[in-house]
Amino acid sequence: TQQWSSSPSRKSRNRQRPNVKDHEGSAEHDGIKEGIEGCIGNTPLIKIKSLSEATGCEILAKAEFLNGAGNSPKDRVALSIIQMAEADGLLTPHSGDTVYEGTVGSTGISLAAICRARGYKAHICMPDDMAIEKSDLLLKLGAEVERVRPAPIVDQKQFVNLARSRALEHTADPNKRGSGLFADQFETEANWKAHYAGTGPEIYDQTDGNLDAFVSGAGTGGTISGVALFLKEKLPGLKVVLADPPGSGLYNRVKFGVMFNTKEKEGTRRRHQVDTIVEGIGINRVTQNFEVGRELIDDAVKVTDDQAIKMARWLVEHDGIFCGSSSAVNCVAATTLAKQLGPGHRIVTLLCDSGARHLSKFWANKEVGGSEDDVSLESVLQP
Ligand code: PMP
């Protein structure tokens, strides 16, 4: 009470002229977030009512599109990469240093937003067949964007290789300040560790450790590995299932231990590129981030473009959820698994990003946005 009785003069002073310093450290406590970085993580776990009712399982989805910087799970990864680089002295906040990355979009958008907030530049290399709104958004966020023809990973002009060589050029140029960081989301441990430290524990807490399966697609593999590594330590009986789009080699890697079936000739387009309307998941090489959790993946479900398209429509029609293509693939795989496991199980998956990021491509498909007819769940589950 003594404290309170001696404080009115300070309180009234603050009321006249708020002193920001007085409030430092109390922001989180007051429900105020410290910039966009403070809005990353702690995403809600949503029960998808229509899919739960239809299957008799509880199908829960982590609403990763509600991450508050770049609106995808990549916010966690981008922040983790930048924080680890700062801790290692590779980046200095507000130095104007450049962060380089090869990305199909989401990681670039998260990096670009966080770079703005922390005083860095972002240089993003991406394939030119991704939805145009992603590169538009990157430009508006102030990133430098190089859109390149999709190419095999062995090609120097492939988007990840290009980003790596741009970072090296930066370091070699005496006129450029700072080190120039190659973010390297496919290989860096900062990626899976962000999900091991965030997404995994959040799912465990939000379900009180009461879940039977976790379902996720993989691009870099950071999400599925990080979450599986955390959850399987706590729940050894948990089933971890990969959701894989057409043309990706990961399904074969999980099911049969090989990336390619012998009929696929080396050097063909299929061997290097994922042939699907889905963006962000599916890949034809084993990255470090996939490898670190690979042995924890129990099964894989192949999802066709047609199934993803129908699921996206189903989720809008029944739940008002307007999601992107990888989220739709996750939901098809989660529902397929629910049918396999039978009623009474609890399955967790991810809603990665919003349909707004896919308007010109995935959602421009006539099958997705065009028809008035209701989609049946049977047709969604029919490969
Ligand atoms: N969904 C979207 C929209 C993505 O951009 C990505 C990452 N490329 C993923 C899912 C897959 O996540 P991860 O890289 O952790 O495997």
Structure commentary:
It is a single chain. By secondary structure, the protein is an alpha/beta fold. The protein has helices at 2-6, 8-16, 49-55, 74-87, 106-118, 132-140, 159-172, 189-206, 222-234, 250-256, 269-272, 288-291, 305-319, 325-341, 366-369, 377-381, and strands spanning 45-47, 58-63, 98-102, 121-127, 144-148, 181-182, 213-216, 239-244, 299-302, 346-351. The protein is 41% helix and 13% strand. The chain has a six-stranded mixed beta sheet with strand order 1-2-10-7-8-9, sandwiched between helices. Strands 5-4-3-6 form a four-stranded parallel beta sheet, with helices on both faces. Helix 5 (106-118) links the parallel strand 3 and strand 4. The longest helix is centred in the middle third of the chain and has 18 residues, at 189-206. It binds 4'-deoxy-4'-aminopyridoxal-5'-phosphate. The site of 4'-deoxy-4'-aminopyridoxal-5'-phosphate has 16 residues, from helix 9.
Rg over C-alpha atoms, rounded to the nearest angstrom? 22 Å
Number of strands: 10
Look at the structure and give the mean pLDDT.
89
Biggest sheet strand line-up = 1-2-10-7-8-9
Structural class: alpha/beta
Biggest β-sheet strands, sense, barrel: 6 strands, mixed
Helix % is 40-55%
Q: What small molecules does the structure contain?
A: 4'-deoxy-4'-aminopyridoxal-5'-phosphate
Low-confidence stretches: 1-22, 265-271
How large is the share of residues in beta strands?
A: 5-15%
| Secondary-structure element string | HHEHEHEHEHEHEHEHEHHHEHHEHH
Given the structure, what is the number of helices? 16
Shape: globular
